[in-house]
Write a structure and sequence with these properties.
The chain is α+β, with helices and mostly antiparallel strands.
Length: about 220
C-alpha cells in the first residue's frame, strides 16, 4: 500500500513526520493521514525526491526503492564515463540522504550513484574519495549564487571551522549547507546567501553537528 511505503521510506532515512511536512509545505497531520491511508498526497514526485526513493516504487510498489535519479541531478553526471583524470565519488539524490548516511556512519549500507571529480583536485586538497559525499541543492537558501540543482561535494574528514567556508551541518535533525563563522562564547553564526528568506542564525556550538566542509560545487547553466 502507498501509505505503508511512505512510512517505510520516511523511517529509512530517519525523518520525522514533522520534518517531511515542513519540506512538503503541509501540516504534520497531513503526513499522518498519508501514512494511515486516509488520503494520498498530491505531489508524489516531490515526496519521492524528499524521501530519496523511486517514484515508480512509491506510487505503484514496482521495482526497487533504491533512490532513483532526480531531475535535480544533471543526466550527464549520472551517465558519465570516467578517465584517468577523474575519480568517481558518491552522489546521493538529496542532502537528507547524504547527511543521514554519514552522520549515522552508514556510508556503506546504501548504493550511491557516482559523480566524477578531478583526480588532481582530490590529490591537491589531500581528500580521500571514500570520504566525499555529493548531493544536489534542493532549496533556495543559497540562491542566486548556487541555484536549485547545484551539486555540492563535501569532505567528511574536515569539520573544523574556517570562517566563511561552507559546511554540511545537522541542526535539529535537519541537514543544511551554511557558511559558518566562529563567534565569542561558544557561538556559531550560520549564514545563507539568500538573506531575503533566510536570516543569519547565532547558535551554540553544541546545537549543531558539522559533518564536513564543502570543497567543490557544480552548476548546470
Amino acid at each position: 500500500m502507498l501509505s505503508a511505503r511512505i512510512k517505510q521510506a520516511r523511517q529509512r532515512i530517519a525523518l520525522s513526520q514533522q520534518q517531511v511536512a515542513d519540506k512538503m509545505g503541509v501540516s504534520k497531520t497531513a503526513v499522518f493521514k498519508w501514512e494511515n491511508g486516509h488520503y494520498e498526497p498530491k505531489n508524489l514526485d516531490i515526496l519521492a525526491n524528499i524521501l530519496g526513493v523511486s517514484l515508480t516504487w512509491l506510487r505503484e510498489g514496482r521495482g526497487s526503492p533504491v533512490p532513483a535519479q532526480t531531475s535535480a541531478i544533471p543526466a550527464e553526471i549520472n551517465n558519465a564515463s570516467y578517465n584517468q583524470d577523474e575519480t568517481p565519488v558518491c552522489l546521493y539524490p538529496s542532502i537528507d540522504m547524504a547527511g543521514y548516511i554519514h552522520s549515522e556512519q552508514q556510508q556503506h549500507r546504501l548504493h550511491c550513484k557516482k559523480f566524477g571529480l578531478s583526480t588532481e583536485l582530490l590529490e591537491r586538497k589531500k581528500i580521500s574519495p571514500d570520504m566525499v559525499a555529493c548531493f544536489p541543492v534542493d532549496d533556495n537558501s543559497m540562491e542566486p549564487i548556487m541555484p536549485h540543482g547545484t551539486v555540492f561535494a563535501v569532505d567528511l574528514n574536515r569539520t573544523s571551522i574556517i570562517d566563511g567556508n561552507l559546511y554540511l551541518i545537522k541542526q535539529n535533525h535537519l541537514f543544511r549547507v551554511r557558511k559558518l563563522y566562529s563567534m565569542p562564547h561558544q557561538k556559531v553564526c550560520l549564514h545563507a546567501y539568500n538573506k531575503t528568506e533566510y536570516c543569519d542564525e547565532s547558535v551554540s556550538v553544541s546545537d549543531i553537528v558539522i559533518l564536513g566542509r564543502v570543497f567543490y560545487y557544480a552548476v548546470e547553466l
